[in-house]
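Running log. JK asked me to keep both predictions on one page so they can be read side by side. First protein, sequence followed by its tokens:
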Amino acid sequence: MKGIVLALLLALAGSERTHIEPVFSESKISVYNYEAVILNGFPESGLSRAGIKINCKVEISAYAQRSYFLKIQSPEIKEYNGVWPKDPFTRSSKLTQALAEQLTKPARFEYSNGRVGDIFVADDVSDTVANIYRGILNLLQVTIKKSQDVYDLQESSVGGICHTRYVIQEDKRGDQIRIIKSTDFNNCQDKVSKTIGLELAEFCHSCKQLNRVIQGAATYTYKLKGRDQGTVIMEVTARQVLQVTPFAERHGAATMESRQVLAWVGSKSGQLTPPQIQLKNRGNLHYQFASELHQMPIHLMKTKSPEAQAVEALQHLVQDTQQHIREDAPAKFLQLVQLLRASNFENLQALWKQFAQRTQYRRCLLDALPMAGTVDCLKFIKQLIHNEELTTQEAAVLITFAMRSARPGQRNFQISADLVQDSKVQKYSTVHKAAILAYGTMVRRYCDQLSSCPEHALEPLHELAAEAANKGHYEDIALALKALGNAGQPESIKRIQKFLPGFSSSADQLPVRIQTDAVMALRNIAKEDPRKVQEILLQIFMDRDVRTEVRMMACLALFETRPGLATVTAIANVAARESKTNLQLASFTFSQMKALSKSSVPHLEPLAAACSVALKILNPSLDNLGYRYSKVMRVDTFKYNLMAGAAAKVFIMNSANTMFPVFILAKFREYTSLVENDDIEIGIRGEGIEEFLRKQNIQFANFPMRKKISQIVKSLLGFKGLPSQVPLISGYIKLFGQEIAFTELNKEVIQNTIQALNQPAERHTMIRNVLNKLLNGVVGQYARRWMTWEYRHIIPTTVGLPAELSLYQSAIVHAAVNSDVKVKPTPSGDFSAAQLLESQIQLNGEVKPSVLVHTVATMGINSPLFQAGIEFHGKVHAHLPAKFTAFLDMKDRNFKIETPPFQQENHLVEIRAQTFAFTRNIADLDSARKTLVVPRNNEQNILKKHFETTGRTSAEGASMMEDSSEMGPKKYSAEPGHHQYAPNINSYDACTKFSKAGVHLCIQCKTHNAASRRNTIFYQAVGEHDFKLTMKPAHTEGAIEKLQLEITAGPKAASKIMGLVEVEGTEGEPMDETAVTKRLKMILGIDESRKDTNETALYRSKQKKKK
């Protein structure tokens, strides 16, 4: 037995590979040919692609033990932008010349046992070029195990430390070793990537099981051969594929493909001359992010003089929005944002000094400034507020958006913390509230990139909450709780519990609105620590001593944490018990469970199933309760083909005493295969009104809805009995789960408003200014600009260049107004706003409102030196010009509006979508090209002629990949064996005539897409799409002088009521007026016993002429 074991050990020892780790000659220079190609587009032929190719020679020479020099010789860069595979690469001489100086500088790297260590590069070499070095050295990274042919490991590469599988094949007769390795970039221990713009989004981890937006993998093939000095790498080929799809994967995807070839040419005697300058350690193989983080992928600019360029962009934007919005205005606004990012503090000061007193330029600059998000921009905003150079409204808006857009780094965070403590910010209540709420958002984004949130980050909010509680300032307590909710950090739970009933003895004495705010503050924290928040909320929900409104809010928040079946059934059990004594709570819980049980969103499938089971515990008769009881209404949809869905929810919480809604919450949520977001949430609370009505002891339960509303209005008009401290109505608005503003309306505000409206306008500056503008007429234009979305996901390619998936959206709202007002009697010197209610007003106006939304999605290479990829542009342009005359007689309660008939064609809505392949390089910006991904037939001929006239030589066309792979362009022919696709073109036109108004409403659609390649949603979206909704004047039998709408209420309303009479053969016969009047009174609900009537009359007539 011992002999057998010994024999096996000897056999295994003999089978182990020895000295097979790749080495380089210690006395000679190893010379390789290197080629790297990146192409972006779609896998099918006949569609346009864009990319870049790098050719060069690579020389490697020994420097010291386990240390080598690498030098690039004869670099050449080519661009690709054309129809694949017909069109060739074209040489980019200027870009090659611009990069050659840096690329040809030697670099040093550590190399031992097939592993690349630290890399040393000259300090004046850009990070982009250093990453290209990494792409080359990444091919030399190979881990060989002596005793295994197939093995897995986590290996370091350009893309991070990711799962890698090796397969080794050894040819002993040829003394060659073939190694195949594959890397899964979706399975990384330490992945190199950057995501910008999704700090506030909720990532859906379960959705990855259904669909992946981005998938990536790479394969490498090594050919090693034994030489006298050891094993030499003869050839390395690498191929990386990144697949991107916004829809279900089965519908196809866009791809980014990278190919590399490193082929041994030979060796030459001598050594590379060591550089005279000190080489700087630039880290290991992992890709290093640089200035591409600040470079938008949708345009490439030289920013040597950002101030002058920003002035030009400002002038362009203001001119573009004088009378209407030009098509390129949103793109120009994004360009302005990019230029502000490139500007330093002094540039910003100069821009402000130049345009601060010019209204339109000032407004445009203030729109772009908070979107830039740089340290200098945030610092400059802080200075403007401190120097009181902004109005209160401008400061509040600027703070809100600046902190949301600023990069969540240490410096920006410190500026934000200083801004909150600034005395000029605290001086104005509106600005202070905006700053505190925005700071909570900044804390959320800052702490999101840390393992735990530091105490100093939350300290200002904790101190505000503690100080407000000690002083009994309820408004400041609410502000602190809302900001802590924005921050959403588990470290704040104990602070919030001090304001929750059942967790603090003093909390029971707090107003219900404060307790509710404390519960709502836990909603964002639940995203970080759902189990802890569920325990707190369940305890509140089960406590009968807690006010019903607070328990209902706890129920709402509980289901947002997506509890498991055990928790859901516990909630149902509590609701079943409460159904005998607290129908408001039982109804709210039942309706919420029922709504969730019907959800079709895959993200909510476990919760929907749990609610379906839990509903069996509850009494089904709860479903029959009317709207006097609290309800939850939910509508959602999800399309698996699009991997997207949406949900709209309304929560109505009624008072048990008055049956009056004390809280209404409405929100809209979107779902995608990557994230889910609460796009907007609006809440209105009527706690003060409910308290006041409860004290009036009105039996609302016995009244019909109409009488209930009448009683409420009558009670509120006697505002002297309203509570002075409790807000009557309060409301808030959230965007993407973050509260950006809230306001309260109390008795004092009502009294001051009524007093200001009834006193002479001269005593109140704001009232006087508004009335003067109104009475003197308004002439001018208004424009606002936003960058509504910026999402970027950047990962490195194996070549060492950054691959980016991005989504940008900018919007411009514009309105040109020309109006004048006539008032009878003519206003006197002591005229008050209330007197308008007793006057006759005539308003002549012409308005031209419009909105333009531009969305850009890109996939490709985005570096400070060149860009290449696929770009989708979508534009929605809506404009509705109107010219009218309005007559308003408040005394007789009569309103009439007249407008002339349409005289010219107007495009009401225009939608256009296009998909391009684009290339740009910083050395030759004029050579930037954009080609339709789905080319038109005539464009294919033009492209062919363009490339034929470039004088392409055989040397230019030669490629290391053309003979051995599919990466190189092949000869494109129309022979029978080669199938050519025609683009899928469809069009649709339809018109509808509205003879009463004298207009035609026409729809025109045209699409030119890639569905002929693959008939799926994704390929149907790729191409060109146009949609127009047009209003045209229509010919009518009789001339239309004007269109008129009149509304009369009050005593004279009945005199305006007339019947719709079809006068045919009975023309001239009297109509039964009594019957018509009775019928109309019944429809309008007019009470014969009441003298005051409120009726709306609609007059239409139609008469045929006798022939």
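And the second, directly underneath as requested:
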Amino acid sequence: MVEKKRRPEAEAEASGVEPRTELLNGGGSGGGPRDDEPKKRRKGGGDGSEGGGKSGSIIDNAQSYELATRVGYQVVASPSKIQEMEKPMEPYHEVFLSFRGSDTHRDITDYLYHSLVDAGIRAYRDDEELRVGKDIGPELLQAIKQSKISIPIFSKQYAASKWCLMELVQMVECKEKWGQEIMPIFYDVEPSEVRKQTRTYGEAIQSHVNKQLYTNETIQNWKAALNKVGKLKGWELKERGKGEFTKEIVQKLLIELKKNYLAVTNCLVEMDDQVDQIMEKIGEQTTGTKIVGIYGMGGVGKTTLATILYNKLLADFDNCCFLSNIRETKIVSLQNQLISDVLRKECPSIKSINEGITEIKNRLSSKKVLLLLDDVDQNTQLEALVGTGECWFSRGSKVIITTRDKELLKVVDFQHELTEMDFGHSLQLFSRHAFGRDSPPAEYVSLSQKAVEICGHLPLALEIIGSLLHRNDINKWKNVLKKLETIPNEKVKNKLNISFEALETQEQEIFLDVCCFFVGFNVRIVTYMWDSCEFFPECSLEVLKQRSLIKIAKGNQLWVHDQLRDLGRVIVRERAREKQSRVWDHEEAIDVLETEETAENLKVLNLTDCKNLLRTPNFSAHQKLEQLILEGCRELVQVDRSIGELKHLVLLNLKYCGKLHTLPDEMEELEALTELLVDHTSITNIPEWKGMEKLETLGAAYCRLLSECNLAGCSTSLSYLNFTSTGISELPFGNFGSLIELNLCWTKIRELPNSIETMKNLRVLRLSHSILEKLPSALGMLEELEEIEAGDCQFLYGEIPTEIRRLSFLKILRLTGTGISNIPKLPESMTELYLTGNRRMRCPDLSNLLNLRVLVLEVKYQNPFDLAPSLNWIGELRKLESLWLGGDGLVTLPSNFNLLAKLRKLKLVLNSLGCLPWLPQNLSYFHFVGQQLMSINLSYLGKLLELKDDGCEQLIKIQDLEHLKNLQRLDLANLPLLVKLPDLTGLKKLWSLAIVGCPKLVEVRGHLESLKELYLEKCESLAKLLDPLTFKHIENLDISRCPKLKKIQGLENSENLIDLCLWGLPLLDKLLDLTNNKELEHLDLYDCPCLVEIRGRLESLKGLDIFKCRSLRKFSDPSSFKKLQYSSIEDCEKLEEILKSDEYRYLKKVRVGGYHRHGYVRRGSRRRDIELEW
């Protein structure tokens, strides 16, 4: 039960001889041999572990596995590793005691140690006096990691021992990484002595410094560990007796060790960001009772995230309960389990829900409880377990709820939506189930990527499909994936189908419509159609959103997860063929049209992108047709006159039928039609269709030949009218009293008539890029107006009518690039305002716009004698989230600028500004352009994610850049005086770095462990790049016009490199061996005159561009270019001579020659400017 580890005598520390220590492998996949590697027998053991079972890997044991689940990861292991991880490894400790033997060995340590043993607690007692060497050995390191709780016993001489300090640093690391508990004992010192390193602790640290045996970093780590642990709540012995003291400690430890940490599904992929986000709301630093609700579609990982949170919170609770599978469990049973788990004893069985509610209130109201309710699907469950008013438990309780239905979370303090993973984490999770490792083998990369796309980044699907394909050959993979492209996996389907079956009939119909036809459609447009079918779409769409079955994406577009879309289509297909009501595949649709027995039941016909359709068929036999979708039938020239017989047709979609010039007159007989889309067609006029009295949506955008339009017959019903980029020169005649949105962008309309005041329901008016000359005062009569967009109307001059202040619902006003000179007082309802590009415009006073969230403002002098405009009001806009501020006249910013606490995005284009003010500290994105700025220091912006510095012609240095620990993207452009940058190693999260137009920059220093994109251009003095290890994970590398750069060290280790582009590097004489670049798909070389050879097997190469590399003689292995799809080799005389040989057969499509290629477009560049969305 207890192990006291004693080490043999060895050379004294003073001898300077270091014992050999084995490197511990902390790999996330367990550290054992991979499935594709032969298992190697290690010294001392025959099972792949060292010493006959002692750990050779810090996560290859049950206890470390348990601890790992508390970090913020989903644990992933191949099925073959699960049994191995379930076996507890010996020695296995619950408590680790750290002490200075000369101080406490025969006193409190022995007493406590034996008390723990007597209580059945497995303890590890280390004797630091018996150690040798400079480092903690692997056994001791493992003992600390395996323990659930570490107890440092702080005595007067504790800090005098380097061993004790090393142990303490390891304890703190385990606490921060894995949530391990530290419970300090202050034996004969005060906590403040430890925390502040005063008295004997200060003397001990100084003694270590004086010995000059340890690096400054080591000393700082020791001091930081003392400071952190000294702040923790622990025990102070003082005048108390050892018996009473140890009894208290043992009782507390027994309570802690009895807690059951929940096992997390075997999948470890990082979820740190989401865990941290929720812990900020409900963690130990929060007071009061907190309820958090996690919602998302089935299989997205809600239970995993909730379990991680539960484990991280568990240390602060004596009373805890996890109620799983609530959907399928009776409420009374759940109530019984809740009471029994919290009280830790069997209780009399509850007979009814009301009795259970009474018992929970009476017996648990004084308890501080941690409760996890998993998979809640009814409000009655919450009412019976926690109450929907005030929580029934004591102050400080935490409740975590997971559900698919957002509607159930109205009572929670914080809601968190969990969406599917990004591609990188999805591939990692899939690989661990399919291969038992973090990434797929080279021959499986493309198939694995395809599998991830089929799974739609959904954790449940990734786990199931990955396990299904485990240990199968490539042919089996191809067959399975081909099947999954059309038919979802049965287990995944059944899991997702639960949500569908819980819907009402109308909700199911709308969901199936979206899956089959309307992914990517504007909600407003399709809503009109469902309205005509009396489906009450607003309510149904809200239900679908709350249950995470659909989302409303940017641009008000409908979005459905691929797995759910496929599920919906399978449901439609499973219905009997003769009753099939929806057809979305055009080949299948044509077959249905030719089958009489199916024609009468057809309600939805989708012939999207049918390439051979010249004329529509006769529709006489399709009387029940409600939706006809012919979008993208680019050869269609005629719509059959029989379309007038479709009395139930509510949607006609003819978008992108570019050869369609006319519409049949019989269309006026479509009395049920609510939505007509003719965008991107060649129609020239829209006649007066008197019979279309229900038409609500007319889309005619980009009908460039359309010049006439008569809407008198349907104007009263129209809600949405889009004439973007047409030849319309005046507003059609009619009564548009129902119109909600009017789009006249890029039209020839010069003037809006005063009759526009009759559009009493208009909410959105879009006029951008039109030749409009004036805004009418009648705008002030449109009381429902919420958005006016008139950007880039170059002929729009004068003033905004003062009547605009009447628009009490106005939220968005865009007036960029106009001639407007005066801005009147705007309504306080405004949330977004865009005013740029006009030298005549006076600086407005916006002090009343306290609800403003987005402001884009360019302030300029009207003449050189103007005073600088005042912006003192800007600090009062406390809700501002995004700010773009520009102007030549601004030399300072208001002193209250830093009060904008909610500001996240900031762009300053201020060429007269000499120094930056103190910026708001919550900024995530900062882009600055300023010619006069000489130095900047942004080290206090700890939350900054993206930084762009452009056109600062006087900038000499950027101070403390390395302190921006959360920075992810850095873009430095056009800084002619910048000579050097600080070491960037501290930017642990930086994944994109772009440096352009910095001619005096000599080197870029540091090791960027997360870097994926590097773009360097026009850095004429640059001779040295980042640490070679930086290139290990890089995916896109683009270097051009850096003439002093001779070599790129580390490129040979770039295992993830996809795009490599090297331009204008005259001193580059060779590329290092690219054999390890198995993912390289595109290689672009231009004007590298000294380059002689390209070495390596480029098995994934798809594109090859080489130009003006006149010394290039050969590829070392052209036979590996089997996946090459295109290539262009020009002005490479020595290479062109050998291209005709058989070994270059894979370059058959190569374009060769010594001529200049006109209009050559450089394709290698993958640089993406940091531009904020405004």
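Observation for JK regarding the second prediction: Residues 1-91, 128-134, 1152-1174 have pLDDT under 50 and may be disordered.
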